[in-house]
Each structure stands twice: as C-alpha cells, then as structure tokens.
Amino acid sequence: MDTEVFHTDGYVPIAPYLRGTADSFASSEYISGDLTLQRKLGDRGRVYLRGSSFGESRDNGTVLQRNRTTIRELDLGGDWKSDSIGQFSAIGYVGREVFNQSFSSVSANRDTETLTRLQRVPAQPLGMDIQWTRPLKARQTLVAGVAADEVRGESDELAISKNVATTAVDNGGRQHNVGIFGEDIIQLTSRWLLTPIARVDHWTNFDAFSSSQPVPPAIGATVFTLLPEREETFFSPRLGSLYRLTSTVSLTASAYRSFRAPTLNELYRSFQQGNNFTKANNQLVAERLTGAEGGVTATGFRQRLLVRGNFFWADITRPVENVTVLHSTAGCPANPNIVCLERENLGRAHAPGMEVETEARVNSALTLSGGFQYVDPKIVSFPNPPVVSLAGKEIPEVPRHVFTVQARYFKPHWILLGVQGRFVGVQYDNDQNTFLLRRFFVMDLMASHPLTPALDVFVAADNLLNQRYDIAQNPLNLAPPILARVGLRLNLGAR
Fold it and tell me: Which CATH class is domain 2-345?
C-alpha cells in the first residue's frame, strides 16, 4: 500500500505587471493511495486485486476559478505460465472519474471577474486486456492479445450571465474500442532480429446526445438532439528490425501506421482557460499516422557507456487541433475579450526530427545521462480555415528543441539522490503562431533515505533555480516558483 498527501500555495500565476484585484494566490492539494492484494499460485502464476484513489483540489489564480478532481479505479488481474502452451496475463478494470470546474471572464485591466460557467464532468471507464506469449523455438517467439475498453462520459454545464444562471447544457456519449494484435519476434541470424506486428482496431461512438434548456425551465424550450452513431476500423502494421554490426554497435529501423480516436472530452466537452474558450466538436474523426525511423546504438568501455541516435519522420492526416474561429460561430461567447476556438481535424501535418541519448555509469553508485530532441512540427494543409490559413504554421505547444541531463547516485540501504535539468526551446501557444512561449531551463532534485524496509523519508525540490517561465500567453501565465516538499513514503508490501 502506498499513500501520498501534498499541499502547495503562495504564488500568483499572472505576470506581475498584468495583475489586478481579480487575481489571487494559486494553490493545490491532493491525496492519493493504492492498495494491492496478491496471492501466488505456486511458482507458475498469481492473482491480484488492486484499488487506487486520487483526489485533487485547485485554486487557479483568481477568486472564482477553481476545480476539483476525483479518480477511483479497481483492477483484477493475474499471470500464469505453462511449459507447453505459453504464458498468459490478463487484467480487467473499472473506474469512476469526476471533474468539477468553475469558469470566469476577467476584464482587460484584471480588476473585475464575472462567473460564466459551472461544469461537472463524470466519466466511467471499463476495460480488459489479455496477452499470450509463447516461444516456438529457440529463435522465435509469438505474442498475441486482445484489448477492449468502453468509456461513458458527460459534460454537464450551467451557463451564467451577469451572475444569473441562464442555460443548462448537457452533452455526452459512449465510446467503445476493441483491438486485436499479433507479434512475431524472429531471430533470423545471430545478428539479425526481425519483429513484424499487426493490429486491428474498431472504434464505435454511440448513445451520443446534446441537450439545452433555459433556467428556469420553460415548457417546450428544451432542445434534445440524438447524435448519429459513428465507427471506424483501422489496420496498424509495424515492421521493426535490429541488426548487430559488431558486439558493440547495432542498427535499428522500423516503419509503422497507427491511429488515435477522438476522446469523449474532445467530442463533447467545451472549456475555458484564461480568455480562451474552446468548443467541443462531435464531428471529429480519428487521426492517422504513417511513420518511419532508423538509428544506431553503440556501447563502449565494457558496457559502461551507451550512446543512441535516432532519426524519425511522421506524416499525420486529420490531426485534431484547437483552431481559432470567428465569434459569430455558433456556440462561441459574445464577449469580444474572449478568444473562441474549436477542435477541428486539420488536413495534414509533418513532424520529422532526431533524438540522441547517452548514459554513462561512472561507478557502481553514480550514473550520468542526457538527451537531445529536435523536431520540426509543421501543418502542411488545412482546407477552408475559418480565420487565416494555417499551412506552414508550427503545431502549437511542440518545442523544436528539448535537452535533458540527469545524475543519479544510489547506495543501497543508505541514500538515493537524483538531479535533473531540462531545457525547452521556444514554442507557440496558439494555432496562428502569434503567442510565443519563451525558452526555459529548470532543475529538479530528489533525495530519499530508508528508515526501515517499509518506510522512506524524502526531500524534493522542483524548479530549483526558481525560473518563472511562460506556460500561457493569453493572458501571460507563469509557471510556479521553486517548490520544496519533505515527507514519508510508506510501502506496507515491503519485506
């Protein structure tokens, strides 16, 4: 069993020169825990039951903007292996999530704030995953499985104008996904490994609806619309290969296709962040990706140094993005101070790039590592844009450059010490590339010491250099300052 309690407050996210009397301190507190019960079935299997819970409450930097989240999940699973038919693993899960949030409109001088919307978003996920693995011969292993899940969710909203509730809006639906996959791990020669994978997914959206009624209710004024069922089937093949040039150098390559169905959140939940209002879109279709990558991995100094480099290319059709639309668009707020966006399927986007990683084991206790990623995320086409053409624009919130460094020092039964630094290059905060988020560098630190086999004491600091970097531009929203915490971590399953 693990539990954790966390609380922080004491900073204002809006830049100092923009603050008004509507702005206030932001705070966050959460509590989480999980409990696992397990029984071994001899030396060939086990069954387990796991429950987890998470609760969080936030004040978001103004008097009226707050949110609260509750997530609970129950898992039942097991593993079993047989010398003759292979190894099986299975897990089933059920959960409940509830999100509550209040939205407001802040005046241009940030001295007045008006409540605009109250929102409650309940969701119930349910699913299962079964996998089978069996070595056929010394140089071949088969893997197969099936995964299925269903999510039911709604967005219950109360629109407010001039401090008076005006309209109750309810949108929601159910989404079912089932996927079947197979994998063949083939050792063609002592140097060459080939891995073909095939997966078929079927996505269905049903029981979808939209309703609106005035407050107080009026006879004949309620509008209830059943939305049509929609479904898609997608085949996702992948072929991966590894070739060992020498005992220390290997080449890798892969080509693949995949898809992502729009979530219930994207289909039905509208929301406001700062002065940006984003509409849901129940007509979204699944994103599709075709990609390829190739790279080299090298080790040296008796496996104490590892260097990995990789080039990748991705072509995404129908990517889902938040697109700026005109205020005259149905469902947009009439307030001219609010920017209205709607989730849309773009035409096509490209994201070629490269990444390099390295790790060095200095001695038995100290490990140093680092990584660099470059990506060029461009929108290639978007037919009939509502405001301006997005072709040639960068995909929002995807930085071109990311660099990370880590140092880890571990002495068993004494101390674990970790330091991490992260540099993130410039990126854009909106689809039209008019809001620029500046580059930043942050450092985090964590240290823990075991008091008993089941109890650790820890201390951690996030944003150790106290960098107030941009996380939003409308209005300018700053990241939290240095955040230090100390506590105890209890694991009742330790021995």
Answer: mainly beta
